[in-house]
Amino acid sequence: QYKFRDLTIEEIKNVNKTYPNFEFSVNTYTFKDGSQKDLLNFSGTIPVKYGNSYNIPVCLWIMDSHPFAPPICFLKPTANMGISVGKHVDARGRIYLPYLQSWSHPQSTVIGLIKEMIAKFEEELPLYSLSSADAARQSELLAYIAKITEGETDRKAKGKIGGDKDGCFNKITVIGAGDLGMACVLAITAKGTADKVVLLDLSEGAAKGGTMDLEIFSLPNVEISKDFSASANSKVVVLTVNSLGNAQTYRDVIQSNVELFRGIIPAISHYSQNSVLLVASHPVEIMTYVSWKLSAFPKSRVIGVGSNLDTERFRYILTNLLKAEVLGKDAWIVGEQGEEKVPSWISRNSATQQTVAAHNSREKVANRALEVLKGKGQRSWSFGLSVADLTDSILKDKRKVHSVSTLAKGCCNINSEVFLSLPCILGTHGVIEMMKLEEDPLVLEKLQSSAASIHDLLQQLKL
Q: Where is the UEV domain (predicted)?
């Protein structure tokens, strides 16, 4: 039963008027957790111009809390169509768009969603024609695709299709057995996202401290190893190591970390060529850049934990302590980890221009939240929970927005190759899309200042 029946009926009328070729029906949708609901769905084709004109078949499932929850959208390829995996479509045909991510009633509508779908597909066509031989092979997969467009397949089916040779299809390797590495292993295990977690202990000598305790009180699906080959076929590799040398200056400490990574990243890249590298080592902006350079991975698959923890805390403080739920929804901490971080907001095209009074009021509330945030501290277990949050979004292809360290060149008038925390949509292959920030001169100035100081430091290092 639809909670907002009248609003949903009005939506159906609008869609039928604009896209009369769409068919409406009620079918059973199966969610990832195995639960089922009878949901309304729209099926039809949308017109897309990509050189020629194409009719792209889609199916939109309308949630029972519509219009306050976004639809779930899929392509419906025929036997002679192949799916072009891209930033808006995954291999299963599920459609991901910024419009869905920022869905907000009453601004967001199914008509608006379809219009953005058309616009994005005109930039990157989601389907292509198969040859007769390919079409024959494609027909063997249609049963699976049909299941997906009618609902999510169960976990066991996914395992058979996506599993690697050792039967483990969601594998995470955590490098470093210090407090942070241990916290990451425990948090990831508690989250239940990964089928296997490998803790790669690079310390000298026999297992000590936490790793010894892990061996004594063994956790299911957790393996401890000193061999890089144990990390093979990981979907995500989390780097928590930091050099404990006798460096005298800050630059020397970082250079020592660079040398440490020089012996790690190539090996990890060799054993897990398609992984996402998630850097938690400090300073995260520098070490994420180093990981990117040493791995030769695309920028989308090398990210740092950045300001994800600060952002989640900041939004929680705004929403739950200061009761500023509207501000908390789009609020982000961006820039550098530490004292140079800055609050910002995602730009909304549909939002009206803020008045000076409203802007000043928002700044006052944000400053109060930052003061509360300062007293929270950042312990290993806090970062561990943040890392588990990020790996969950990546492995489950959630297309959720996180403030993570990503290559900032080309954003906010930054021309150098530096990594800064910016709100990004994360999926199976790392960063899918960077969200646009409001054009606040103070925020832009701080981001550019951070970029300049990081770039200067990078120039002093031997990479």
A: 1-131
